[in-house]
Write a structure and sequence with these properties.
Number of strands: 15
Distance between the termini: 31 Å
CATH architecture of one domain: Alpha-Beta Barrel
CATH topology of one domain: TIM Barrel
Order of helices and strands: EEEHEHHHEHEHEHEEHEHEHEEEHEHH
Bound molecules: flavin mononucleotide
Shape: globular
Helix content: 25-40%
Structural class: alpha/beta
CATH class of one domain: Alpha Beta
Length: 417
Amino acid sequence: MKRVDDFRLRFGKRELVPIMIGGMGVDISTAELALEAARLGGIGHISDAMLPTVTDRLYDTDFVKTKLQQYKYNIENADKAAVKFDLGHIAESTRLHVSKTMEAKRGEGMVFINCMEKLTMNAPRETLTVRLRSALDAGIDGITLAAGLHLGSFAMIEDHPRFRDAKLGIIVSSLRALQLFLRKNARTNRLPDYVVVEGPLAGGHLGFGLDDWMKYDLRTITQEVLDFLKAEQLDIPVIPAGGIFTGTDATNFLEMGAAAVQVATRFTVADECGLPKDVQQEYFKASESDIEVNGVSPTGYPMRMLKNSPAIGSGIRPGCEAYGYILDANGRCAYVDSYNREVAAHPDEKKIQVFDKTCLCTHMRNFKLWTCGHYTYKLKDTTNKLADGSYQVLSAEHIFRDYQFSTDNKIALPEKA
Ligand SMILES: Cc1cc2nc3c(=O)[nH]c(=O)nc-3n(C[C@H](O)[C@H](O)[C@H](O)COP(=O)(O)O)c2cc1C
């Protein structure tokens, strides 16, 4: 019987264990987690989401404080168009996080950065260009372009000296999105080095509609992509993601022709994951009915999360002066609009509630929005329940090796803590 370790992901002459840990913002997929994947011969991701606040926390910079001081005057203002990012600060924080991570890298694997186009930051082109270029400057092994179509992203880094040496991949949820990307990018004469095909059971934002995500399945989309690439004689590794929970699930995809798998949910309960320990227990405890796909993300994409996430219904004042990552090219965010509507409707109330949208930046930054994959309710079966009723957190190495070596849909439990 085959297992994941019988396969290898090939990038030119390089061979990797075909397990990639997906990017999870904001700093849920930490450097420590990504570095473990690389040490074990696979691929790990750090995330580029909200890096100025991440580096403030990790490396004692003060980007958020500086931005807040500059725009403090605007806090009561419903219009956030004036709140701009300092491009120099974005570059500095990206370089800092990437270079510190890459300096610590050991082993044969690779570390990539997940870069979401939907973080439009009140100047989509300028901020994304700086993020991509700074990550390359700082020596990242590869960039995974996520959450958005990224039709212009390759062109933003076309003249960068590392454009052809760094691995560049995209995440798509349909064959159509891939075809569109390939068409738009033909001019750069550079194919993506890999394509992550993300199905409807993934965590984070979904590339499907709120009402029809359940009609799609990862196997079918992956097969369509594999067939298309074969017909076009394009040799691009295909990496399915979303709901791949056991080594056997992964092996099944590798046997159908996938080059690797991207996984995340199992690692949300790893010691090296950025989620606070009490939040990890919420993930363990969740049952299937505690998980929903809803429309509260102001990005406009459906998002999967635990229903008891404190972010849902929270009516905090928008944090754009400190953060502002979702502000579009015109300085708008759907949460700001919802918040202002509720304030106008309840002029005498001190504490309002907003249910249709959430302040994604502040809540993701504070780990109050518990986004998760569909199979989060199975996490409790991957570990031991301890005497105090809590669940034992796992090491990333244990989870990685379980994917790599397990057969028969089995999941190895960790040694009792
Ligand atoms: C907590 C969490 C946060 C995530 N955040 C991001 C993100 O910031 N960007 C992204 O492209 N994908 C994100 N994802 C999706 C994963 O990278 C991955 O593709 C997917 O979850 C894999 O499916 P699985 O979780 O069922 O293994 C996230 C997933 C989880 C569970």
